[in-house]
Amino acid sequence: MDLTFLIPTRIETEDRLRNIISSVSYLLKHLNAKVIVKEVSSHNTFKHRAVPEIKKYADITNLTCLYEQTEEPLFCKSKVLNDLIVASDTNVVANYDADCILPLD
Prior knowledge:
The protein is of the alpha/beta class. It has helices spanning about 15-30, 45-55, 75-85; strands at about 5-10, 35-40, 65-70, 90-95.
């Protein structure tokens, strides 16, 4: 499949952390697609806390993790999404929300 799921995120709460673990695990386990997550925050929570959990449920070969450190209080999702599009190498990309799981069908 020539598809990359792009997930811009800032992990501010334990709920968001659980959601992104679930979403990324689900995508990697059930779809033949790439996933790129870019976290923009003051701590690299995704790499240090989410990835070890995702490894328990799915192969992370198709997962790319990007991180941008910032103290900026606002999260500019459009800018992060543009960065993710540039980082992708597939013909099709999907802007995917860290807090949702779409049915396979």
